[in-house]
Write a structure and sequence with these properties.
alpha/beta, about 25% strand, globular
């Protein structure tokens, strides 16, 4: 072999070793390196007390994931005032009990939830390279495995959480008033944006503080699983001060210095996770996108995108 051939072989071998090491890190280590991202959002009326919001998303729980279950239980030490769950909790047909065990410490903490498709249907094997061709879709030929979403809904409501799947509710927390509205999973075209204005108007007409003109102004919060631009724009038009979303997994695989490679929706890559501003022509809202805590059991890898829960402290606006 020539000197050039030996050099080329050495480069290829080094690349193969590096790729294998990265794959091992992503599948064996990083996907289980759960962490908390801390954010502060100034949306409350001046003089309001801080509200600590725990944002959970894309848990994709399998019954054998004991470390994830315990880590979620330990999040109760954050002592949140409110929990927002943006869906894809179930990652296996028999995972309901595991999700219930993990979230039981939050019983009595007010919250709200919306669903992703993986709360209704179990995961299926797929070629991960197809994500580079656009947002994923269900296999037309394969019948998905039904998950027990009815049991999950009953459990979440027993915790005291509000169902925001194409619904709107109002709630008061620590002296602050919140208008909450949400959609079903836009990734499957289940979102009913045509119902959103009516839902919001009816909710605002029924709030218990509607006659209290001297009380603090309510804060509007939009909640959705998949942050498609049509949903974000609709939330901004409805006056959302902050929007919570998940679905993207932060890209699940990112390149250091470049960021997420895909978002699995029409959200630009730079919004794949984190706190941003989302603006239409005349108004804007804070946008909090969680990278989520799990992965499909058929794609158990994360690289340069740690699994996360997000603690968002809502603070008073400055005058």
């Amino acid at each position: 072999m020539t000197r050039g051939g030996r050099a080329a072989a050495g480069v290829l071998a080094a690349g193969a070793v590096t790729g294998a090491a990265a794959a091992a890190w992503g599948s064996l280590v990083e996907r289980r390196r759960f962490g908390i991202r801390w954010e502060t959002v100034p949306v409350l009326p001046p003089g309001s007390r801080d509200i600590v919001v725990l944002h959970l998303s894309d848990i994709h729980m399998a019954p054998w994931q004991a470390d994830k279950q315990q880590w979620l239980r330990d999040l109760s030490l954050v002592e949140p005032d409110f929990v927002v769950n943006t869906g894809d909790n179930l990652g296996h047909p028999t995972a309901n009990a595991a999700v219930e065990y993990a979230l039981e410490p939050f019983r009595g903490v007010p919250g709200a939830f919306v669903y992703g498709s993986n709360d209704f249907y179990g995961p299926s094997p797929r070629n991960p390279l197809k994500y580079f061709g656009g947002p994923s879709s269900m296999h037309a030929k394969a019948k998905p495995v039904d998950l027990d979403v009815e049991r999950q809904t009953a459990y979440f409501e027993s915790l005291g959480w509000l169902d925001l799947n194409d619904k709107a509710h109002a709630i008061e927390v620590r002296g602050s008033r919140f208008e909450l509205f949400g959609t079903s999973d836009a990734h499957r075209d289940w979102d009913r944006l045509d119902l959103l204005p009516t839902n919001v108007d009816e909710m605002r007409g029924e709030v218990p503080w509607s006659e209290d003109e001297d009380g603090p102004a309510p804060v509007s919060i939009g909640v959705t699983h998949a942050p498609y631009r049509r949903v974000l724009d609709a939330f901004v038009r409805q006056g959302a001060d902050v929007v919570f979303a998940g679905h993207t997994h932060g890209g699940q695989v990112a390149v250091p210095g470049f960021g997420a490679l895909v978002t699995n929706c029409d959200l630009p890559r730079e919004y794949a996770s984190g706190l941003h501003r989302w603006q239409n022509r005349t108004h804007w809202s804070w946008l909090e996108v969680s990278a989520g805590l799990g992965t499909s059991i058929y794609a158990p890898v994360r690289f340069a995108v740690r699994p996360e829960a997000v603690v968002v402290t809502l603070t008073a606006r400055t005058a």
